[in-house]
Batch of 2 targets.
Target 1
Amino acid sequence: MTDEPTFQAEIASMTAMILAGGLGTRLREETEFKPKPMVRIGTQPILWHIMKLYRKFGVRRFIVCLGYRGDVIRDYFLRHRLEQSDFEVDLATGDIDILSPNLSDDWKVVLAETGAATSTGGRVLRALPYIKGERFFLTYGDGLCDVDIAAVYRYHREAGRLATVTAVHPTARFGELDIGNGLAEGFLEKPQIRQGWINGGFFVMERGALAGFSGDEVNLETDILEKLSANQQLAAYQHSGFWQCMDTFRETQMLNEMWASGTAPWA
C-alpha cells in the first residue's frame, strides 16, 4: 500500500483536464459573448473555482480544452497575474515590472484549442498529447462540488479500472412532498434526490480508457463512458455531499448567493 506522502506526491504530479468548449445554450443570458466556464461566481469565473478545488489537493497543472469563445479564456489567463498585482509599465519599451506579485494561484495552464464544434470525447482526444503520464483527472467546466479529490483518486487506484466517475445525487428542481391519507405529511423545498445517481464529472482516467477512439465526433458520455461501463471498466465513486451544475441563470444566481454568504460548500 502506498504511504501517505508518496500518495499525496502522486496526486500533485498529475494534470487535471477541464472541458471548457461548449456553447452553453441554456445559459444564453450569460454565454452570448463568453463561454460558460467564464461566467462569474463572485469576482472569478466558475473555471477558477473548479481549479481551486483541485489545487486544494495538490494539483497545479491544468489543461483547459477550448472551443466556443476560447479567446475569452486565453485573455483571462494571459491577464490574470497582472489583474491581481501592482505593476509598473515602461510606455517607451512596453516592459512590465511586477511590483507586488500575486502568488495565490501558482498553476501551470495549458490552453488547448479543441475546435468549436468538437464533441466532449473529441476534445479529450485532441488534448491528450499534453498529458504527462498514464493517468489524469478530467471534469467539466460548469459544475461545482465539495468532493474529496484524494478520496476519488484512492478509490480509482483500489478499483483497478480504466476510469472512475464521481456519482452524485442532483438537487430536485421542485419541492418534495411526502403524502399519506390525502395529507402532506412532509415538505422539503428542493431536496437532494434520494434515489438515483448521475454523472457528476470529476473523473480519473487512464490513457487506456481512450484506446480505439479517434475523431472530433467522439462523445465522452455516449461513446467512451458507455463502452467502459459495458466492459466493467468504469468505477463509480459515490459522493453524497454538495454538487451543483450551472445550466441556468437561476442556478448561477444560487451559486453567487452561496458565495456571497460565505457558506459556499465547495470553497
Target 2
Amino acid sequence: MDISNFELALRLVMAWILGGLIGMERESHGRPAGFRTHILVCVGATLMMLVSAFGLQSVATDRVGGHDPGRIAAQVVSGIGFLGAGTIMREGANIRGLTTAASLWTVAGIGLAVGAGFYFPSLVATLLVVVTLVVLNKVEWAFGRKQELIGIRTQDTPGQLARVFAVLAKHDINVYNVEMDTSSGGDAVLELSVEIPQKAKRMAVLDDLMATPGIFRASYR
C-alpha cells in the first residue's frame, strides 16, 4: 500500500497538533514533561508507525513470514515507559508525576494511531485526555486533594524566605511545611508543601516568584 507525501506530512502535522494540545496543559502546571516533550513523543511515535507500516514494505518482501507493521509499534508502547519513569519522583511517602507519565504513554498511543491513519479515534482520545486533565482535575480538587509541592532555588540571604512567603500570601496560599537545603554553594533550595486555592492562577504564582529578586527558579513538583 502506497502513501503520498502529502498524507505523510498530514499525519505528522496532526500528531504535532494533538501532542501539543495535551502538552500545553502539562506545561501550564509546570510539570517536568510539558509542551515540547509531548509534541516530540507524539510526532516520534507517528513517525515510527509510518516507517513500520510503509517504509519497510520493500525491505520485508524477501523475508519469510511477510511484513508485520505492529512490531515497531509494540516497541514504542513498551519503550515509552522509560521516558515516563523519568517524570515520576518519590518524595517521602508520596509519589508524584504519575499523571504526567500516563499522559506521555497516552500521547505515544495517539501518535501511533495517527500514523496508522485512525484520525477519528486520535481526535476523540485527545479530547478525552484534555478533559481528564483539565476538568477532572478541578473535580479532584473540589473533593479535597489540594496540597502540592513548590520547589524554589533562591539566594541564601536574610529576609529572602519572608519575600517568598509574601508572594504566597498575595495569592492566599497556605504553607504547611518548609524544607531548606543550603548546601548548594551560597544558594538555598526550598521545598514548600502548600495549599493552593481554586481561584489562584497557578502560573501567575510562579511568575510572581520568579519576579522576586534573588529567586532563580520556581516550579511545581
